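for the writeup, i need someone to sanity check this before i put it in the appendix. the sequnce is what the collaborator sent (i think, or maybe the updated version? ugh). structure was predicted straight from it, no edits. if anything looks off just tell me and ill rerun, i have time this weekend
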Amino acid sequence: MSKQEPIDIYSNDDGKFEDVYSDIYSNGPSNSRKHSKKKKGRAGRYIKRSLALIGKLIVSVFLVMVITGSIVATALTVYVMKFVDPDAGIDLHKLEQGYQTTIYTLDASGNEKILTTLEQSVNTEWADLAKIPQHVQDAFVYTEDERFWEHEGVDWKRTFGAFVNMFINIYGFQQGGSTITQQLIKNLTGDDEVRIERKVQEIFRAINLERRYTKDEILEAYLNIVHLGRNTNGVQAASKLYFNKDVSQLTVVEAAALAAMTRNPVGYDPINKAEENAGRREYVLKQMYEHGAITELEYQEALNTELVTDLTQPAGNEDKEYQSYFVDHLINQIIADLQEQKGWSEEKATQQLYNGGYKIYATVDPELQTLLEDKFKESSTFSSSVLRDPPQAAMIIMDHYGNIKAVVGGRGEKSGNRVLNRATQSVRSPGSSIKPLSVYAPAVENNLITYSTMVKDEPLHDVLIGGEKRDWPNNYTKRNYGTLPIVQALQRSLNTIPVQLLQKIGLQNSYNFLTEDLGFTTLVESEETEDGGTLTDISLGNLAMGDMVYGTKLSELTAGFQIFANGGTYSAPTAYTQVLDASGEVLLSTDNANKGKQVISEETSGVMNKLLQQVVEGPNGTGRAAKLDGFTVIGKTGTSNTYNDQLFVGATPYYVAGLWYGYDTPKSVEGIGMYPVGQIWKNVMQDAHKGLESKEFTISDQVLELQYCTRTGLIASSSCPKATGYYKASNVPDTCSGH
């Protein structure tokens, strides 16, 4: 029997499968050819079917790619259109007048009213394109965007090259991909963050800008807005700054020197960085020559011509009116917020604020601001007579949500713009005015005391001070008052009681409340001195009596007192509610009334409000001079240990206001003929309330008005000597059982 081996399996025409064997011993040639033909026919059908299957697979993959690509493109388009504003509010026809930033206030009906416009902080002067020589135009075009006249806003070749260069350094330096059109948009919007979304947005805007304006209009705008160092924008202003001549008179080498600065105005400054400018200038001239903007002779002459600068400038007009302290502070705050929230440098934030066409909604009350300024120009506000060397003073007035309504940073006529504002910038000792925030509020909040808790007025014993043990602290009256209720301890501004309470509260807890909840930025947790010592505000004397390492800002101290007027919420002090960019988009926002943080309970706020009323209305209150006619006042006086600083921070149902006076170079203000600090506060605030309806603070209904026993501090029984107190419903003292 011949040996047979299975070699393959094919499907026959009936759709059934059969085994095909090769009989290499018994089968003859004819049989072999028969099987061979049959095998080839079936193999052909197999190959055709395989090819058909592969074809279908390729088509399917292609269709999937097309569909996926369409989905991705659609999603990308939707995504891009969500944040792309092709217009961006850019109007090149307005550039000659500049993008002025305008500050608005809202009247009682919510209507916008222009407060002021900010003067441009940069040196700039417009020049029409016809006045700018061709070689000046060419120097910038062939340095910054050699295909400017050919592309439609985006140089795709350069953009792709810049992208590749990020991963493969093919240029030997960081290649920029932005065209002149894109650079113009960045300069106008101030948006140069390194983000894919920002770059895509810029591309769309550039394409749109080229559709709306001619190349000449775009180039003219660019040459008038490009930053060229030393707080100067535009070729006309730069020509006068560096060469003391009109742009129409610039030589080729001078034009190249300016164009060399665009990448890094400071690094290529033609005066301070003359060598670096010369090196970059050679590149500019080479670009101009290679593109036919100058002849070979002009090219060689320019290379061998020494650059001569001339900083001689005519004196400016000094006869101008200075902006208010409020506007000063508003500018400073917005610049700081742009740096913090946008990551901008101070220089960029300043330039964008002044020249970005922003719309700012300020919190100021213009009439109140004028009143405060006038009051601080009158010596009668501070003293009954004119003093030979009067102390300085500062005051800030807010609503109950930290919105600044008026601020003055010094007495007398203002001497300039953005001068020292003692209300928002100076750091001075708060003295006892810190006690309600650092001690009494946390103690009431944590149920350590009530309105009438009895405490003993005595110092701590054997306290190590200056290397020796002694009783500490002393009261400012140099006497002690025995056992008395909390309301009288606060009313008299005793020092011994806050120290005792602070030991129970915990130093770190008090410090954290001030810095984390109430926004104090000048306190010191721990700081090493040059001699190896340590400075800290986490101590009994600092937190209980305001004897801080450096001190506090009046604006932050005043803002802290809002929690006693509004039910316990805190909002950081602010001079604006919103800042809109040139396109109307919200750039910054505060909206304090809706973003307050609850830092103490409404009940604690109510009890503290009632306690602080007694500082002004109580028979022994240190703030009695601040009492207003027709309006309830809460508040606290403060005096530093050396009498260098005196303060009163108070609140009415309308405002929270803080006042400081002292000398810029610290020295005692005791006995110099000034009114008491509360009286000065009243001299301003009484007029500030003229025309306002009389109203009271809103106190939580969970604050109970009860009679307490003046001997025990407990709730009075029928036989007790009584006084009125105010208590959290959740922490009412027991009833006195007798004496």
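Residues 1-35, 170-175, 314-318 have pLDDT under 50 and may be disordered. Residues 7 and 21 are 6 Å apart (CA to CA).
thx in advance!!
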